[in-house]
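Hey, I was hoping to borrow your eyes for a little while. I've dropped the whole record in just underneath, so have a look:

——
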Amino acid sequence: MHCPFCRNPDSRVVDSRTSDDGLSIKRRRQCPECGRRFSTVETSSLTVVKRSGATEPFSRDKVVAGVRKACQGRPVSDDDLALLAQRVEESIRGSGSAEIDANEIGLAILGPLRELDVVAYLRFASVYQDFGSLEDFEAAITLLRADREGATLPAGQDAESDAPEA
C-alpha cells in the first residue's frame, strides 16, 4: 500500500476493524518513511461470469430487479427483497469463490424466494428453469405441496425424478 503523503511503497498496519455489515475491513496504517497515518478500506470483489463469457461485478440491485418482476402483485415489500438479495450475496460469498456463474446466482435465489413467496418462486423458477409444459409446473407444485405438508408423494412418484431440470 503506497503512502498517500510521500508515496513510499510500504506501510504498517496499526489497527484493523471489520465494518458493520462484515463485508469490508477498515485498516489504520502508518508509513515507516514519513510516520504519517492513513486509513484504507478493503473489500473482496465478487465477479459474475455471464453465459456469453463476459464478466461484471456482482450487484444486489440486479438480484432485486430480477426478483421484483416475479413478485409483481404479491405481498412482498422492498425490505423483503433487500433481505433476499443480502441472503443471496452471503450465500455466494460463503462459497469462497471470487468468480461465480450467473446460473449459480439463479440457484441461490430460488431457496430464499421460495421461503418468501411460493407464487413468486414459481414465476421465477418457470423462467429460470425454462418450464416448457404444464407438467413442469405440476411437478414443481407437487414438490412445494410435499414440502409444505411434510407429506410423502403418492406411491410410484419420486420427488427428484419429477422435478424440472435445473
Remarks:
- The longest strand covers residues 12-18.
